[in-house]
Amino acid sequence: MKLIGKIIAVLLLRLNVPRDEVAQFTDQIERRKESGTVPEELKSRIMKERDSDKLGKWLKAAARTQSIEDFISKMDS
C-alpha cells in the first residue's frame, strides 16, 4: 500500500493537488501496509507526462494495482 500511496502522490502532485492534501490522503493509504519505493524512472515518467487524461487513467490504475509491475503494464495498455 505504501508503493501505491507513493505512485498516487506523484500523480496527484502532477495534477497540481496541494501538497498538504496529497500528504493527508497518501498517509491514509500508506498506513495500511508497507511495500517498496517508486523507481526513479517511473517517477520521472509520471512527472514528464503532460496529458491530464493519461494522468487520470494512471491514477485510477494505481488505485487498483497489486504491484509495481501490474501498474506499469496498466500504464502501457
Per DSSP, the total helix count is 5
The number of strands is 0
Supply the number of structural domains. Answer: 1
Q: Please give the share of residues in helix.
A: over 70%
Estimated share of beta-strand residues: under 5%
Largest sheet: none
In short:
The chain contains 5 helices and no strands.
Explain what you see.
This protein has 77 residues and is mainly α. It has one domain (2-76). 73% of the residues lie in helices and 0% in strands. The protein is built from five helices and no strands. It has helices spanning 2-14, 19-30, 40-48, 52-64, 68-76. The chain is globular.
Q: What secondary-structure arrangement, pairings included, does this model have?
A:
Elements: H1 2-14, H2 19-30, H3 40-48, H4 52-64, H5 68-76
Helix pairs in contact: 1-2, 1-4
List keywords for this structure.
77 residues, mainly alpha
